[in-house]
Amino acid sequence: MNPLLLWFHKLGSPPYFYRLAGRLLPWLWGLALIGLVAGLYGGLVLAPADYQQSDAFRIIYVHVPSAWMSMFIYAFMAANGFVALVWRIKLSETLAMAAAPIGAAFTAICLATGSIWGKPMWGTWWTWDARLTSELVLLFLYLGVIGLYHAIEDRRQASRAAAFLALIGIVNLPIVHFSVKWWNTLHQGSTVKLFGPSLIDGRMLWPLLVMALATKLLFAASLLSRARVDLLELEAGKEWARQVALAGERT
Amino acid sequence: MNPTRKRRLVVISLILGAVGIAATLTVFALQQNITYLHTPVEVLAGKVPADARFRLGGMVKAGSIQRAGDSLKTGFTVTDGDADMAVEYTGILPDLFREKQSVIATGRMENGRFVASEVLAKHDENYVPRDVAEAMANAHKKHDIPEKKPTAQ
Amino acid sequence: MSEFFHMGGYGSYVWSAMAIFVGVLALDAVAPLIKRRRVLRELRARARRAQKRNEESV
């Protein structure tokens, strides 16, 4: 077996993952926090005000990174769900289900901050335009996955059923992303583009990119924290879990 | 890959494919039937049934805003570059409402005028600091470049 | 400084958006810590029960 595949198998073993995640966590939380502080300072203090929206545009620094995360986490959850369904890897099931509440949190932030931004600029808290509606559907998909997972008694069966729902819901992702192109909507098009120049001044762009990186790190930290605890719960009868619990008692 | 896993992979891929096709078809269907807004050209061409409530989208024509002195009544012209439409609205306008700004008004036609019950301002995807915007405006004036044509809403 | 909090008249909008962002993510960070305490407590109780059974059977 080649070394990479071997490492993958090792990573799939819960006690190994538990220890590795434990070592990574302080770094992830630390870097995420530094990134958030730097990004928000850049966005709220250093970036110049927009010529049309003045200081109200600063909501972009929490709204857009959250919107990106809502889609990124969904893709991550669905990919892990796919692996969980086909290869029945316990770690993938755990990661997929641990990602769901974090994704739901970012989606809720995206909707709430977008609404707060929409009131002064557009003139309304909410409108049923394609972008807003598809993002709301994304929130319901997350809630559906979480709900289904908790509705089924057997943990592993529950995660498989929820993974399946997550996988089906992935069709919503391109709809969210392209909604501003496909339909004539109130929501404007994409400002930051992966290909081609972004439609935002450099002094306004960098804090946004810092925030994008910081929210990724925050997701990684939250995901590993949740996955660790979930594995501990899932493997409560195993010897390694007993050792972890007893070691924790002494310290 | 062992046979069971292979079978699961095939079955799940097939289901995903089917759902993907269904979603694509739905999107195509919705694109034809659901329009968030109509432009003045479409309204004048009679594409909107009379008496129907709809959203009118376009740009506020420069110099067309008339505010009543004693009330919140505002009149302005919405244009899509090809046709104009007079709009009447009573109420508080969003902060971004100004000349040459894209707006979406909800209401219905009354005697050839569009009477709006809600006016929303659409903003574009460009973010520009004030100093850069001023420098750009000055440069445009100096080189006599006509102002950017609005994108059709 | 007060100008910074004023945000050109959009202070209430900008700061409530920031508060939601920070507040929701703080809850998200605390949730696994609370669950961890509960799971460890259960695991310790389980270990004690197992030990008791062992002692009784000896």
Using brief descriptors, characterize the structure shown.
heterotrimer; A: 251 residues; mainly alpha; Four Helix Bundle (Hemerythrin (Met), subunit A); 0% strand; B: 153 residues; alpha+beta; OB fold (Dihydrolipoamide Acetyltransferase, E2P); extended
How is this fold's topology laid out?
The complex is a heterotrimer of chains A (251), B (153) and C (58).
Chain A: H1 3-11, H2 14-46, H3 60-87, H4 90-121, H5 130-151, H6 155-168, H7 172-182, H8 202-234, H9 239-250
Chain B: H1 3-33, H2 40-44, E1 54-60, E2 66-67, E3 73-79, E4 84-90, E5 102-110, E6 113-121, H3 130-142
Chain C: H1 2-6, H2 11-57
Task: Describe the 3D structure.
The complex is a heterotrimer of chains A (251), B (153) and C (58). With 251 residues, chain A is mostly helical. Chain A has one domain: Four Helix Bundle (Hemerythrin (Met), subunit A), CATH 1.20.120. Chain A is built from nine helices and no strands. In chain A, helix 2 runs antiparallel to helix 8 and helix 5 runs antiparallel to helix 6. The radius of gyration of chain A is 20 Å and the shape is globular. Chain B is an alpha+beta fold. Chain B folds into two domains: 34 residues; 82 residues, Nucleic acid-binding proteins (OB fold (Dihydrolipoamide Acetyltransferase, E2P), Beta Barrel). A five-stranded mixed barrel of chain B has the order 1-3-4-6-5. Chain C is 90% helix and 0% strand. Chain C has two helices and no strands. The longest helix of chain C has 47 residues. Chains A and B meet through helix 3 and helix 7 of A and helix 1, strand 6 and helix 3 of B.
Quick overview:
The complex is a heterotrimer of chains A (251), B (153) and C (58). Chain B is an alpha+beta fold and 153 residues long.
**Tell me about the biggest sheet of chain B?**
5 strands, mixed, barrel
The helix/strand series of chain B, from N terminus to C terminus, equals: HHEEEEEEH
Structural class of chain C: mainly alpha
Stretches of chain C where pLDDT is under 50 for at least 5 consecutive residues are none
Shape type of chain B: extended
**Helix/strand order of chain C, N-terminal first:** HH
Instruction: Report Rg of chain B.
Output: 23 Å
What is the count of helical runs of chain B? 3
| Strands of chain C, total number | 0
User: Roughly how many Å apart are the termini of chain C?
Assistant: 73 Å
- Domains of chain C, number: 1
Oligomer: heterotrimer
The pLDDT mean of chain C sits at: 90
CATH superfamily of the largest domain in chain B: Nucleic acid-binding proteins
CATH topology of the largest domain in chain B: OB fold (Dihydrolipoamide Acetyltransferase, E2P)
